[in-house]
Amino acid sequence: MGVTEFAQDLAHGVETRVSALSGAFLDPVIRLGVTGLARAGKTVFITSLVSNLLDRGRMPQLRAAADGRIEAAWLQPQPDDTIPRFDYEGHRAALTGASPHWPESTRAVSELRLSLRLRPAGLFGLTGPRKVHIDIIDYPGEWLLDLSLMDLSFQQWSEGVLARVALRDEAAGYRASLQGLVESGWDEPVARRLADGWRAVLVALRKAGLSDVTPGRFLMPGELEGSPALTFAPLPRPEAPARGGLWREMERRFEAYKARVVRPFFRDHFARIDRQVVLVDALEAIHAGPAALEDMRRAMAGVLQAFRPGRGGLLAELIGGKRVDRILFAATRADHLHHSQHARLSAILAAMLREARDRADFAGAQTAAMAIASLRATTEVDLSRGGETIPAVQGVLQATGRTAAMYAGDLPTDPTRLLSPAREGAAGWLDGDYAVMRLAPAPLDLAPGQGLPHIRLDRAAEFLLGDRL
């Protein structure tokens, strides 16, 4: 490299850094992480949030929109060139086309930048309009669960997951494969067979409505498929694990998974997170039964115990002390219930996450729990049964395309009526029968200036972004 080229590169580097520094002062950035468990609706949440920030006719509870302080909103290139862009246009087209359908679920990290031009607040408005950038980071919920592994040894993890599946039919084949397993020298085909068997257990558990399915990358391995870091499985510990034997190598690979897969992911992608959304399909868990509801509560508590927003904690260690100061727990698919039951759904979610919320509040982070629908797919109707009027909803069945009315069941006003039998390991609900049908997006006819129809997305946006706008 010549002196001239070197000088040009040096000048470009200085210019880039000065520009970045100036941008940091002039244009504030809000980094919003969107996480949740499988099928919780992360993709639809982001698509609808962006749609309703671009066209704010349905956002009366977002004060900056209601007051007219948001003068303009537009999408622009994201700042990180190494992360795929969230396909907002494609996902919105799927939801609003002639034959609307749900977009593909999240399978990798993606990012999107939405910029807002804000009219200055205050009595005199002496300063001119300012910009605020919202960087939205989406990633698979399965990977979120892996954060709970960071404080566990291979033995602790093995004992925990084997105890949880001891009576599950989905794990019968895997339990049988452990019978007569003798501690011996390392054998790669045996390790692969065990890893494939555990992956099959996780797939079956997820289909059954359970949430605690670790390691999460087993379900979405991506470029790591077939690697040693993803070729391990839970084992009962032998009395004297042999050096170079099956147990020791599985233990080593478990530690490698944490060090080389889990830790870098959270370190690299959470380094600047300001606000966090945790989406939960609590209705599906209630429908699946007490075991699924307790499994979801335990999974979320385990994740957030490691998360520890605010001061200290494992995540702070990973990302250098960065603080997540607001967390929203959102129960999705509220449109599957009549509005009279939305408060009950919110109360169940708040109670289910009470321990985790208390830790977050104690650490200084503000938290909220609410029932939302990122895209409203139903209308409310009254059903007549035995001379009684039942408040229900009506939508298009995903399987058949026919319109049907649905009554999901009467959620209790006291959340302990669900959470207590779930904690106690009840086989089913004693005083309630809950059902949730899979509905397709309804055909839309959007008026100019209106985003996608929703339930309480404006309140969610106000909690997550309002103070910064």
From TrEMBL:
It comes from Gemmobacter megaterium. This is YcjX family protein. InterPro entries: YcjX-like. Pfam families: DUF463.
